[in-house]
Amino acid sequence: MTEAALELIGLRKRFGDHEALTGLDLKVPGGTCYALLGPNGAGKTTTLNILLGFIAADAGTARVDGVDVLAEPARARTRIAYIPEQVQLYPRLSGFENLEYFHGLGSREDTAARRLRDCLRQAGLDEAAWDRRVAGYSKGMRQKVGIAIALARRAPVMLLDEPTSGLDPQAAWELNNSLRSLAEQGVTMLMATHDLFRAREVASRIGILVNGRLQQEIDPAEVAGPELEARYLQEVQRVLGVQA
Amino acid sequence: MKAPRFSRAVFLGEWRLLWRDPAAWVVLGVLTAALLGALWQGLAREQAVASSLAELAQADADRMEAAADLAQWLADTEGGISRFRDPRSADVVGRRLGVQHLALPPTALSALAVGQSDLYPAWHPVSLESRDRLQAEGELTHPRQLAVGRFDLSFVVVFVAPLLLLGLLASVPARERETGMLPWVVVQGGGLGSWLLGRVLLRWLLVLLPTLLCGVLAVLLQAMALAAAGDGQTVVRGLLWAAQVTGYLAFWAALALWVGTLPLDGARSALALAFAWLLFVVLIPAVTQVVLDLAHPQPSRMAYVDAMRDATDLARAEGSEALVRYLEDHPELAGDAVDADDFFAQRLLVQERVEAELAPLSAAFEAQRAARARQAAWLRLTSPALLTMDGLADAAGTGEPRHRHFMAQVHGFHSEWRAFFAPRVLSGERFLDHDRVPGFGYEQEPLRLLMPRSSWLLTATAGFTVLFGWLALRRWRSLPKVLGHV
What is the domain range of residue A180? Predict the structure, then answer.
């Protein structure tokens, strides 16, 4: 698939005196994973919030799977699975019950319990934990339930906000495996992150966002880890005028 | 079908959450204990009242029967007896031996609400005494009981149930917003409003259903205890009571929904709801009372008693002149047997004179009371708690309107009693009409009077519910506001 599943054109957003997005243009082809790198306040989360319809852009266009987010935010959300930085679940419910609950909120069909369990398996959650209360889960385990919920939605587009933040290396590695697997299944992903290393591992394209505008796009296959870091820092310093 | 699927998911998840939440069990436990305590108190109170009424009715009948028997014996034997105890004296029978205690019969729902029944006596003694003596006798209530009020189901519904409901709702959806779960919920689809409504609905039902169940139980137990419960109004009154409870708790749910849309964390949300409870249940009713006292102060009972004493002294001073004047005005009553020095006749006329003197004062008092009642009716519109308190009492048949309806019948019967006995007292003839003494039969207040009153109270409460529901809906439409992004 080469057609853009996610498309942002001239997106602008201002919060008081601060301009969070200053004309963001971005295209993510279907079935690819796009990592949006940027320092704090670059506009990553604002971009995701606009795509999710939580806040309205001041100007520009945003399309998800062909649906105009600004005109039809609720319809656009049906095309999106979202994994926040902290996957929040009900601690008194088990992992499976959380999945059943959140999936049930938006599902149009009666999903069999077997398929939901398949989603948990696919997300990599240890089977012994499925029926345990989430209160005893680690952050990585919660992330996996979050992925299972996203998988069960069968949404064509997935938005991830700092998905590896706070995860231990093993959990982050497992998460990356899951994301790669999703990309292979044709899911389009937009991942806002600070984690250059994980971004390079999982993304097929990396964009560097500074001051609300995409400054540079990089093919991770063409750069080594240290070079990616150097280019990122160079770009940030160039735009923000910060000395390394 | 998306909507039923969505509701099922919310309900199932919510049910699991509540089942595993110790706070929900505490709420349910406290509510059940309060309901059962109030139910027990209500039934015990009604049983005591019913028992007293039965004893009074029996005592009235026994006294009258004994008087008739004694009169017959005196007639047969021509025996002598003091004129003040003579059952052949119309005054003695009409004022003492024949006195009838008219009781407002309890309804099958009386145990649900004390209403005004702790202010108004359950019975009124009708005799030749003046009208103000109708109120003179009654049950004595312990002052402490009067001070703290009665613990009844209405109290649980109006004061306790909202607190418990708000306790359950305070974290919905503040906790989700606080933990950042709300955006996650929104993304799942199905609509934030439906999700929130589903969650609130189940918690609302958790408080509503036990309350209604307790009401049904109270009615069944009371109906079993009352042989005459089949007055044909039980079902309608029961439905009105249930509607009042449902409407009132719906108001609190709507208020919690609105607060839920404000960008508040759990602690602030709980504080806002606690303040709302304080405002609607305590502060506004207290302020309305102050406003009422300022605008229409309670008529002075002392002034009335003073005026009555003055009038009585004047009438007594006039003595037999009063009787003579009266007979001049009513020559049809001036039979041969009338003795101008007759004590009974004079007492009756003094009494009538006092009543006539006091009539303008009584009318002024009544006008003041009526103005206060009218103002109070309007002030009820400031709080659903006030509306519901009145609505529950009215539906249970312990409210002021039913008592007023009863009092009109009491006054009517009192006039009938006087019309029957006064000519006989004034004529001074021997009284032998023991079996012709008027009898009282209570006429139920027609439902056509009750329904508009209850409908009005329900509509006003629903108005509050709609207002807060509308405010919540307005904010839901602005997702960023609900999520706290702006």
Answer: 1-79+156-244
